[in-house]
């Protein structure tokens, strides 16, 4: 993880310098400046240092918890992140809860009942998977916020309950595509498990059908579902940028979008590195949980080593 994060930090830092424009031009807002003023701006933000010197200086500050100073907001990046990150995390948690509950239920019902129910779930999930988050955001905002007035159309609210109310529509918009994906993965895994030999043996021994589904079908499908869950969390972190922008939510997604358009290098670099770190953390958690969900993974690795 340390090596991956180090490589990602270099890519994150270097990618911004390939884009046209520079922070000094934004600070000057198109105004002409004397060479002395331009030199002072470059010196303040280390823009006139060689690339590797800037990278090592930035990396040293990051290790010490210093993300630098925002060029756009003229304040510490760590303060911006502390103000906005909780809103984004709450949005991701709400969307994840919606995805897990509805996605697992739809996949379970489609696999167990089959027939017309299975076909209806497949059609619904196909529509969900084919609907991008920003399209879902516009549709939900127009119907439930503008026309019906059931939910706020923008903002993140004040206080936990008000925040949950404001973030309900964004969470649904963020979750819609992933609900379809998780439902289809759950259905496929459970259908495959239903045709396995140990399920046939359990049924032949008179084990109740509900117990067969819970212990022998769904449990054996959890490995595939959990692996997909890691991808779902990673996708949620990225798609928040589109949803937060559509609903004017003051999270790190909207902050990243604004900072990118204004060439706010320190803020973009800090948010990008945090997203990479969250990706790696989610993958680590999934790798640690997989042997607990499916002991065959651990047994298989031991057998191969022997």
TrEMBL record:
Official protein name in the record: ABC transporter permease
Transmembrane segments: 89-109, 121-144, 164-183, 224-250, 270-293
Topology of this chain in the membrane: Multi-pass membrane protein
Domain ABC transmembrane type-1: 85-286
Keyword set includes Amino-acid biosynthesis: no
Subcellular locations according to the entry: Cell membrane
Source superkingdom: Bacteria
SUPFAM superfamilies: MetI-like
GO molecular function: dipeptide transmembrane transporter activity
CDD domains linked to this entry: TM_PBP2 (cd06261)
GO cellular component assignments: plasma membrane
Lineage: Bacteria, Bacillati, Actinomycetota, Actinomycetes, Kitasatosporales
The keyword Kinase belongs to this UniProt entry's keyword annotation: no
Organism: Streptomyces vietnamensis
Keywords of this entry: Cell membrane, Membrane, Transmembrane, Transmembrane helix, Transport
Chief subcellular location: membrane
The family this protein is said to belong to: Belongs to the binding-protein-dependent transport system permease family.
């Amino acid at each position: 993880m340390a090596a991956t994060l180090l490589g990602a930090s270099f890519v994150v830092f270097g990618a911004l310098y390939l884009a046209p424009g520079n922070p000094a031009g934004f600070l000057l807002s198109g105004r002409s400046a004397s060479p002395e003023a331009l030199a002072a701006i470059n010196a303040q933000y280390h823009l006139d240092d060689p690339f590797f010197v800037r990278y090592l200086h930035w990396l040293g500050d990051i290790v010490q918890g210093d993300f630098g100073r925002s060029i756009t907001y003229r304040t510490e990046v760590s303060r911006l992140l502390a103000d906005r990150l909780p809103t984004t995390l709450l949005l991701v948690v709400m969307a994840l809860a919606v995805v897990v509950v509805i996605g697992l239920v739809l996949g379970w019902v489609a696999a167990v009942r089959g027939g017309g129910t299975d076909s209806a779930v497949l059609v619904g999930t196909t529509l969900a998977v084919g609907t991008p988050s920003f399209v879902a955001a516009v549709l939900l905002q127009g119907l439930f916020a503008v026309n019906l007035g059931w939910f706020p159309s923008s903002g993140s609210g004040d206080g936990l309950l008000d925040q949950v109310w404001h973030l309900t529509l964004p969470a649904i918009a963020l979750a819609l595509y992933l609900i379809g994906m998780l439902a289809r993965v759950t259905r496929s895994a459970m259908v495959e498990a239903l045709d396995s030999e140990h399920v046939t043996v359990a049924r032949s021994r008179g084990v109740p059908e509900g117990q067969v589904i819970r212990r022998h079908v769904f449990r054996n499908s959890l490995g595939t579902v959990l692996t997909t869950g890691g991808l779902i969390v990673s996708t949620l972190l990225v798609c928040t940028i589109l949803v937060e922008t559509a609903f004017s939510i003051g999270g790190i997604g909207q902050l990243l979008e604004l900072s990118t358009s204004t060439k706010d290098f320190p803020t973009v670099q800090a948010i990008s590195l945090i997203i990479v770190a969250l990706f790696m953390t989610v993958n680590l958690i999934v790798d640690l949980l997989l042997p607990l969900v499916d002991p065959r993974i651990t047994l298989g690795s031991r057998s191969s080593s022997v």
